[in-house]
Amino acid sequence: MHHGNRFRRRTVTMLLLATALAVATLVSAPARSADILGLYVGAAIGQAQVSAGAPAISTAEFKENHSAYKLMVGIRPISLLGAEVAYVDFGHPTGTLGGFAADAKIDGTAGFAILYLPIPVPFIDIYAKAGAARLKSVVRGTAPVIGAFRADSTDTTLAAGVGVQLKFGSLAVRGEYERFDVAGGNPGLLTVGLTKTFL
Q1: How far is 137 from 182, CA to CA, in rounded Å?
Q2: What does the alpha-carbon distance between residue 157 and residue 138 come to, in Å, rounded to a whole number?
Q3: Rounded distance, CA 152 to CA 140, Å?
Q4: Which residues lie closer than 8 Å to 91 by C-beta, 6 or more apart?
Q5: Which domains does the chain have, with CATH numbers?
Q6: pTM of the model
Q7: Which end of the chain is more exposed for a tag (fewer CB within 10 A), N or C?
Q8: What does the H/E/C string look like for the chain?
């Protein structure tokens, strides 16, 4: 419960920071009325809820929050549809698994199809994304009877997310939440990032 409350507080803080950044950018840069289509690259940082398991060791789930980042390349050929691939790194937090000291690391690649919702505000995009991710998770720790343990898993699974972005010419500031299903857990990723479109 303590970790859940802390994650929610950090989520609200990140959303407030994203809103403040967006408003500041909106004030300092003129909005463009047309969608900027084409290839884009970007990067984002944020907060991950690292969630994974080690079934051979414990039925409990490792769950901790940690700073995270991702790098993405995408294309938006038409106004309503796009596609994106990304490298995601959920960080390397320490915590407990079944009462034993443990740490976990999750990273990998993801690919998404993106649907941009048709809204009447030209400089804002609201979108949903769905696709697949291939993530590697490593959970390590020490238990009194068995000593040191390590559980490695590579999973290909569904992934989904939602996001909003504010566009300023070829630049866009975006906030996203994504959810994955991997290694007995459901890690989540909340990020704020910047993209640059190349015409």
Answers
A1: 8
A2: 16
A3: 9
A4: 48, 50, 66, 67, 68, 105
A5: 2-198 (2.40.160.20)
A6: 0.76
A7: N
A8: CHHHHHHHHHHHHHHHHHHHHHHHHHHHCCCCCCCCCEEEEEEEEEEEEEEEECCCCCCCEEEEEEEEEEEEEEEECCCCEEEEEEEEECCCCEEEECCEEEEEEEEEEEEEEEEECCCCCCCEEEEEEEEEEEEEEEEEEEECCCEEEEEEEEEEEEEEEEEEEEEECCEEEEEEEEEECECCECCEEEEEEEEEEEC
- CA dist 59 and 199 (Å) reads 50
Structure tokens at 61: 């789930």
Structure tokens at 117: 């919702």
Amino acid (one-letter) located at 143: A
pLDDT in tens, 75-125: 999 999 999 999 999 999 888 877 778 888 989 999 999 999 999 998 999
Block residue for tokens 């500041």: 24
